[in-house]
Amino acid sequence: MEFNGEIKYHNQDGYPDKPKNRTPNGNAHVNQTCRYARYHVYQETEYTPLPPEENLPGIKKVKQAIADLSVKEFEAYFSDTYDQVLSNHPSVTPPVPHPESVPQNGYILYLIDVYLDDNDEIEAVSDIHLQYLDENGDKTQDWNDDPFPDRQPDARLQLFGKYVPSMDVFQEFVVYHLRCQLRDVYIGAGLEPPEKYRVLGRGDDDLTSRYHNDKVTIYDDYHLEEADIPGYELEFDYGFGELGKQSVINAKRKGIGAENPDDADSRLANPSQDGEEGLLETVSSVLRGSDTDQTET
Known about the structure:
Elements: H1 24-44, H2 56-67, H3 71-85, E1 108-116, E2 122-125, E3 129-133, E4 139-142, E5 155-159, H4 167-188, H5 205-211, H6 241-253, H7 264-269, H8 279-296
Antiparallel strand pairs: 1-2, 1-3, 1-5, 3-4
């Protein structure tokens, strides 16, 4: 193993050396071994050989830095990101247009790099980068402006389109998303996460693709908010308390995204894409109505 955690040579009989000759589970095990090697170097030395998606100390610090922001401060950094995440809703125009090759509710990931200063406070964030499938079905990326192009970010947000009712709830969601990323750092290295990171939802996109792959059987569906995995649960409530959490879980378990599981979040926001309210908007309306009734009485 190299000092940077990369495995340069190996001698074993458990799986073929060439990835194309391995089973999907074999490739997943090799990936897990490489991630664990980098994690081990981080734990045992002062060197941090971790890319942004695996940067355990960086993700922890960014999560805390975002949690410590006031809503106004958070909005100053992430207002465009909020609009981008809401852009599956027909009334919202994304700050960064979707490529023409991406169909409605098709796979598209919004990447935002976050940089901290020496005090572990947010120094800058990048523009919104896009990751999507091109006309040939190959994963590609469009990189936009970055404040520090020669510097590795402390963490990278990896967000999909989702309905989140307000800026303050979106701040909570971003913090929760980073908890999911921290979960994936441990699981990706073959380790059980600490209890506070045993949550359900999308974190690292690379791990999500493995969880979602039926041919990779060594992982549970940690990315699914409605998954039934002992010791893990959805802890983000969309700003609607337990009602919001259960509404999402029940709707997804009943198959609201059955035709295409990846578009379940957008259909929760606006199932028909024709301007009608989606489930979460309906919940929001009900709660607003309940609040009004209580005020009037």
